[in-house]
Batch of 3 targets.
Target 1
Amino acid sequence: MTQVTSGKRRSTLLVAVLCWSIVVFDGYDLIVYGTTIPKLLAEPGWQLTAGQAGTIGSLAFAGMLVGALGAGVLADRLGRRRMILACTAWFSVFTTLCAFAGGPTSFGILRFVAGIGLGGLVPTANALTAEFVGKGRRALIATAMMSGVPIGGSIAALLGLWAMPTIEWRGMYAVSALALVVLLPAAVALLPESPAWLRVHGRPEQAHRIEQEFGLTGEADPVGTGPVAPLSAVLRPPYLVASVLFACATIATLFAWYGLGTWLPKLMGPDGRFDLGDPLTFLLALNLGAVAGSALTAWAGDRFGALRSAAVAALAAAIGLAFLLTYPGSAAPVYAALVIAGIGTHGTQCLIIAAITNHYPALARGTALGFALGAGRVGAIVAPQAGGWLIDGGYGVGGNIAMFAAASAIAAVLLAVTTRAVRSAVTPRKPLDSVVAH
């Protein structure tokens, strides 16, 4: 969609702000686990090992895999607005219930169920937001909106530093209830439906009204009147190669990002070579780096292209993490390396999302995002478990940091290859209605 300026309009920024606010809670609910791991390992009666804690961490990402794979297709079929509202209610309720878990089994089940909503939100919110901004601004808006994830993580780390001694780890999960009482009612009242989805489902008058209300012109991508693109539409030519590469790059990127988010406080806290204060400050540095880097990666995505910028960002993350293996003796270089890692890992994923929204037509966009992010959850699922195994095996901080640095380097290579594949994949673009018809 592009904007027109005549008449009094509702700002398209409203959609981005609402979705961004929900993503902040998504990020908090996801990353809060990393802030509470040390407390959970010491919880009386639970008797958790690092490997078992890694398994619990992986359960949330397994739920996200289910949510991301299913929500993209469901949102394109049932409506993006309704899917966003449902995911918000879902992950808020089940994250809040984690505060009342009586043991590791019930806690792990609740994290898995909450993960379904967490995973379903991001592809749906990005697909809806992309429709309300011009194509040339999608890298900027997608990256800016996705800064909500590390902002949520930063809030979790700050709350852990200041409030966890008082509210304990259970209170950290109860905070999620705020989304139910504050944010969800606002989204119900203000969030619009996708005009493209409305038009495809035989409601052109309502679609036109929303376009007029927000000052939008029609989507430049092909928008037919038939069924919405199924998953098979993005897994056949001319989209097959790009879809697979996007998914593989997302796997490597999410492996590094969520692996660090899960284990960083536990890894660096007990290691005397990183005795720089409360270990939650390391997680805070990682997330603040991702927040600050959102502006940089958004600018780079619009200036140099989302995919090229993503490859450079992933390489920067690999270099920053590898530097930590030199065990610098002062705080400044450690925090600087973590900031660079935050910029690189989270920034890379934001730019991948922006590249996907630009590469696919409107009717397949939610499905393509759901596939890439859903497949990427494989990396997120494996990372906490792999980190726990390395800790139990005695490899500690060095083994984990090397593993996450390698994942970022792999992502950089995959994205460099994707840049070439995307450039030649759809010239000219195959009409979507011919793909859907199969």
Note: The CA atoms of residues 89 and 180 lie 6 Å apart.
Target 2
Amino acid sequence: MTRGVLAATMAREHYEIDAVFDEFSVPPPGVPATDWVPTLTAGLRALRRHIYIEEEIVFPPLRQGALQMPIMVMLTEHGEMWRRMEDRLFVFQSALTRSVS
């Protein structure tokens, strides 16, 4: 994959992932959590995949020079996001499990 294709794909994913979370920034009225949790779970998994690709493929060649500090900040932010996503996925899975029981 060329750099241009990778950059375009990553940019598109940012918008797609943001759209999932924007849609649910306020839960839809009258819609039970069991209806919207699967979409949010898919969004979180897409975000985790996106972060992984950034950290393993995109960031390493950028760590040298002027981008070193912004990359370090993003790595810190990614770590915090990852921990929060794990917490949310647990909550979502628990909600789905309770609704089935």
Note: The mean pLDDT is 85.
Target 3
Amino acid sequence: MMPARMVVGQKNKHENEASSRASWNTPRSDSRTRMSYGTRMALSFALTSLMTVLILVCVISVVWGGVFSEYTRANVAELAQLTSKKLASIYETNGEWSLSDLASLAESTMVSDDIGLQVMDVDGTVLYDDTWPAAPVAAELKRLQEEEEAALAREQAEARGDADDDADGKKTQADAATASRDAAEDWITETHSLTSSAPTDADGAVTEPVVTADGTVVGSVRLWVMGSDVLLTKADAAFRDRTFNAVAIAAVVAVAISLLIGLLVSRMLVKPIGRITSTAKQIRDGDLSARTNLRGEDEIDQLGETFDEMATSLEKDLKHERRLTSDVAHELRTPLMAMLATVEAMQDGVYPTDAEHLETVASETRRLARLVQQMLDLSRMENRTAPLNLEPVDIVSLVRNIVNAQEQLFIARDLRLRFSDETEGRSATIEVDPDMITQAVINLMSNAMRYTPEGGWVVVTVLLDRKGVLISVADTGIGIAKEDLSRIFGRFWRADSSRAREAGGLGVGLAVTKQIIERHHGFISVESELGKGTTFTIHLPREHAPEQPVKA
């Protein structure tokens, strides 16, 4: 069987005394009018998502909008380059640009319907402009003018005599062409103006020089987008609008999903918190057996486990308080009843009033006085009202003297007591209250003496470790059950399974010892095995921190 072990009093800390002012409220109603934690968390998720979407929209509007404008301008610039190359090819082929060629180029698939075209010669004269409402008519006028000039050239080239027969017909054809051209010119003049309204700023249009294969600049071409100052075509505008619409839809979906996730996550978080709250209310209402039964690795589950441990400890403390009341009544009742029975027997003449029976009364009176004194000592220790008189003390000499003083008591019970110094000559002097340490060691030795059978050993040892001085009291007694180790320092604690015989102990010695060692900022460790014995070890630190007053 493995020995049981327990450590009490380690890392014990005292808080500063609080203010004397106190207050108390009756339990408030469970009704809540404010927004619940789950709703606040869900709204927090939604607001976070909304802020993210707003930031995204700002980024798209500022950054992506500028990039998109550069992209559309690059597209128009590329189209201007292609148009310039086409115009250069026409110029190299014909030696000039005819209005019909320019009108055909403007109506071709190369230039979009919403992109304006303007062609200028090397002198800057506008030859073609999409802002002219009658540009196709002007092209037709030019074509008729060319036919008229060709007809006149043929008429002059032919002999006058040979052309007499045909003169009337050709003249009629030339007259018709001239009439058509005059009609066109009159319609343009009366109805429309040839003033260009094409943008001239660099942001609103793209201008590209027309350069032939030999590097000669023969003119320039200017492209712009109809009805737009940023070169944004209808297709580009539609794409931009679809993008912003998609972002808006995504924003709505993101907020909705965030709200849903917030509700789910908050419900997952609130559910265990609700269990803890419900359990706390049950405990408040008196049900000390209520538990959350939360188990897990996350912080909330650990909170639930800690809460259950606290509830278990509280339940044990309240049960211990009830048991303490019963134990105190029992401990006081036993000597009082013995005294009362003896006195009544002497009064009734059953017992003679002699020294023997008077000693029985005196013995019970002394036991009652010791019990009251130890309870008073324990109360003073717990309340820090007993003075702590610290002074440098050689623990080896102190413990050796205690062992020598108690040796005859052990011999009278047929027990062997031995002192062992394992300090190896090193200093074991520390600041302690010698009276309190003496009381603690005697309590441990008395406990060992009560529960060690005749012929057994009790060894008291002083040794050193890195942090302080250790005082060990080991016996070969009956031992302590593992499940009882955590309760042996309680007041009036009894465990019949761990006792070989009734030894007359008062049951508060270990509680007083624990308080004494804790006042010295030390702790006590216990190792025990049933049937083989128990070892109590007092750990006293070398450096003694100032004692803090107990919290009222």
Note: Confidence is low (pLDDT under 50) at residues 12-19, 187-193, 496-504.
